[in-house]
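User: Hi! I'm working on a homework problem where we have to compare a predicted structure to a textbook description. Could you give me the structure for the chain below?
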Amino acid sequence: MTQSRINMVQCLSPAGLHRMAYQTWGDDHNPRVLICVHGVTRVSDDFDRLAESLSENYRVICPDVVGRGRSERLRDPRLYAVPQYVSDMVTLIARLDVAQVDWVGTSMGGLIGMGLAALPDSPIQKMVLNDIGPNLNFPALMRIGDYIAKEVQFDNFEQGCEYIRTVSAPFGPHSGTEWDKLARDVLREGSDGKWRRHYDPAIAKGFEGITEEGIKRSEAGLWAAYDAIRAPVLLVRGSESDLLTRETAQAMTERGPRAQLAEIPGVGHAPTFMHDDQIALVKNFLLG
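Assistant: Happy to help. Predicted structure tokens:
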């Protein structure tokens, strides 16, 4: 298996400087760049299989969004929000010294991509949105928020792996080896021998005080951002997703960039792009 290189870029928030880690696959001199951004509690390693399969065509860049994985944590947890993440990605693209990029974003990574793609003169040329859209199902958000907020620890990796397998069941069927990787990517052993999830627990503050009425108000802004996107969009939806409804997905094919829609049967929130059929969807869209 091809190995990635791990790099750091220094970014700025209103609370000061922080370093964001990112993995690079493929030729460092390839001007064709693909940026892959993970979900709210996941990490850049989620894209290992997809990145390797595209590394002959692209320089593939997979960041750990600030507060996750190898990246540093923000001094002010109130800044764990899409505007800060978009700012960090602009800094990353400047570091890469390219004028254009393609984008794959899972869940939160898709919201970040929408925020960047909606801006005038956006560098995003093609975008894959993985199980995310402008309408956010409130009960699903609460489920995710409850998961993030729980401070859990495990006596050994096996316990942690079983937990990840349970809470991530909507990812769909995976082999034991695949579940092991999905867990190992987001669990770390502490100096006390306990295993914990590999993110800043303070990211849960972004879910505090969320109300159904507040979500409805924010959706108007998200639809405005989606409608402003000029790049071609592939929308991937897990057929059993509770976050991206079929109605929202259909609406996304009829307005704004009029996304192409591909549904993955037997999967909820969200497809992992670990399997050949899911990888083929992305490759065919980006390279077609």
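For your comparison, note the following. Residues 5-136+223-287 form a domain with the Rossmann fold fold (CATH 3.40.50.1820). The CA atoms of residues 13 and 84 lie 7 Å apart. Good luck with the assignment!
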